């Protein structure tokens, strides 16, 4: 997700003292509101699909509040069997969320003023959206002369509102899903590809950077046609990562 | 209501996800990643997501393939909600119209 832009509704340090915490939290919630509205359909579909795979609403609430990383949850539910392939799902979760490693690394310079007992819990709620908001805000405040540049209450305001809405509406989807019957017959099977494709559009960095995705698609589709079971996911993912590794050499 | 294996899977998912959240902060903050490691990490989520939905691209139902093409087109230019609605409506409609 690209960092949010727009004006920053805080005064410069020359003209005012630090804004109160409650105002900073509110500023974070306000920044996140458009994102929250956009999340609702995906959250409801994830919950409904999870219920169809046999997860209870309590289990959905556990997953979306403890794991709290949408892409990996969509992948996990899509691959869910009864009982689940634990290793496959955990490995896929790690791969989908490995981008957090880079996100945490880029945020780290702005967290130096925070002790670890505050930074580590704050990172629990770092998702694509709250990372983008927190980082963009810290850069803008740094440019405006604020110290510390990173506003923890602003970041937490955006991050916790995303967590609250995500966990609430995925659970709601799991509660109402069973009343809808077999949603596949109405074409709801297309909801997941649609969500994944929009997520990938947000990661789009041009055709060259996306070539590993094409390798993954080709290999995964081929393996799916030839081999029964869920092997097409690790096969496609690893083929794409190998392609990314090999293609990166051209640049360096 | 709550299944032990399901909860174990969820807890392990949450654990590896939290490791990715704090790992970059703890291990990579004073390091520069090589271009290859960065390229692999940047490509990884897209590679996994496209692999998970790859079966849709080789479906044996023409209705689903056409609906997928419409959905891909919608995803390149529309936000989440309209894309999902268009994808689901097209798939539902074509499944009734085509064999």
UniProtKB/TrEMBL annotation, chain A:
Membrane-spanning intervals of the chain: 154-179, 185-204
Alphabetized InterPro entries for the sequence: Brnchd-chn_aa_trnsp_permease
Annotated GO CC locations: plasma membrane
Pfam families on file: AzlC
Membrane protein topology class: Multi-pass membrane protein
Keywords: Cell membrane, Membrane, Transmembrane, Transmembrane helix, Transport
Major site of localization recorded for this protein: membrane
Biological process per Gene Ontology, one example term: L-valine transmembrane transport
Keyword presence, Protein transport: no
Keyword Metal-binding: no
Region span, Disordered: 1-25
Domain of life of the native organism: Bacteria
Family: Belongs to the AzlC family.
Entry protein name: Branched-chain amino acid ABC transporter permease
The organism of origin for this protein: Caulobacter mirabilis
Top-level taxonomy: Bacteria, Pseudomonadati, Pseudomonadota, Alphaproteobacteria, Caulobacterales
TrEMBL record, chain B:
Residues that span the membrane, as ranges: 6-28, 40-59, 65-94
Organism for this UniProt entry: Caulobacter mirabilis
Pfam family, one: AzlD
InterPro entries xrefs: Brnchd-chn_aa_trnsp_AzlD (IPR008407)
Top-level taxon of origin: Bacteria
Alphabetized UniProt keyword annotations: Membrane, Transmembrane, Transmembrane helix
Protein name: Branched-chain amino acid transport
